[in-house]
Structure formats: structure tokens, C-alpha cells
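yo, C-C motif chemokine is done. seq:
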Amino acid sequence: MNLSQGHTSLSPSLTGETISPSRKQHDLGANTPTACCFSFVSRQIPRKFVDDYYETSSQCSQPGVIFKTKRGRQVCADPSEDWVQEYITDLELNP
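structure:
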């Protein structure tokens, strides 16, 4: 895995997605990690495994959705995929 300087992989998984913290300078000078996706899960994960989600920061090089599983794993997904949008809608309607 080749990550650009300053990035450390949080949890590379068998499905191929990569989540990395990116340290960005904020107005107050604090270094706060920002989770970014550099690759996405290659296939749809079962909805019953997904507990929550969040979108990656606009500071990331590409948009992404990070699903949190019931086992505590974080999985990067492509926000342009239909199933990703369906999961987001379902999670918003049924918290």
C-alpha cells in the first residue's frame, strides 16, 4: 500500500478500502485528524452489518462515505453508488 507522506492507514481491510487520517491545519493552529477514503469497498456490504455512517471531510481529495459496522469496523464506500445512498437514507430515517 502506498500512502502519501503524512498519512497512516487506520484499518486496511480484505475488501480493499483504505481509511487514513489526514492532519490538516485549522484556523486555531490545532492539528486535528480527518478521516479520508483513498479506495472503496469493492462490493456491497450487507445492510444488517451497518450501524452508522459519516461522510468524509471536504478537505479530502475525494468524497467518501464511511460506514461503521456493528463489530466496530469502518468501511469506505463510494457515495455515487446506489446502494450507498439507500443505506444513508435508511440510516437517516431509522436511527
